[in-house]
Amino acid sequence: MDINKIIDRLGHIKEKKILVLGDYCLDKYVYSDPAEDDVSLETGVAAWQIYGKKMAAGAAGTITNNLRALGAEVICVGIVGDDGEGYDLLKCLKQIGADTRYIMVSGEITTATYLKNMRKQADGEYREDTRLDFRNRSITSEAMFEELGRNFEEAVKEADGIIVSDQFFERNSGVVGDILRAKINEFAKKYEKPFLVDSRAFAREYKGMYIKCNNYELMKYCGAKGDPECMEDVLAGGTEMKNEVEHSIFITCNKDGIKVFEDEISHVPTYPVTGEIDVTGAGDASNAGIVLSLALGLTPTEAAAVACCVSSITIQQLGTTGTATVEGVIERLYTIDEMMR
Asked: What is the mean pLDDT of the chain?
């Protein structure tokens, strides 16, 4: 791996514009102390007293956060509900300087929101307790998919790289349904730009573009057979999926790094971290590193190395949706390089 080449390309990040299409969610953290808990006079049930909150864009928004922290321009394409959470989500995206022209606001859906209860512990630290998920359970209308497709193509024309965040398992209930998926396949052939898809349940339905999923998704949702902890099974399943989608793919394997499937299979180790970690959003952080690297002209293996560095930084940031800087990535690249020799 040519470290000097990677570092040189990373110096051109601010020249790149990445399109992030997909399921934008709101990560909402609320803080409480068990010592301050009250009891409802009406029901007799415990009433947690919230005295602090913090919000950030999640899912496709986490990819956007990391791209912006690394210095790239970002165009967002998606849908939010005409509700308070949608307002907060758009505010979060605008605050980091993301381009939200192509995000639709619709009263037909509920803004996907992850309400994370952060409870104070005896040591003074906060830990996440039971999470409350607000999800859109209805089918996205054909009219919305058609408008999303038009917005998507306009944004593709402006972008240097495209990432699709296909977050949910229910068919046609999110931003990327069957109609839009067909358009993504069409545009990947039409436009000679790097397309990367992270789809938990529908990865095999994308053709002719980079795919990223993790080893558990590969086995549970993407049709591969075997044990996700058995690397032999992961390699066999990844090879099968690569052949089916007719393109190079990435399989992330948690502490075992990333497997890159091209004509040959490459292994990129993860950066070794110590201490407590929070892996929430690590996959989205990896997505940001991969798509940006591909847009900069790096090889898939080099892109995976950058992704491992980005995610290793974000998982060390507890109780928040972490981001990484170029300086932090470069510092860790040297260790990855040594591990690959």
From this structure: 93
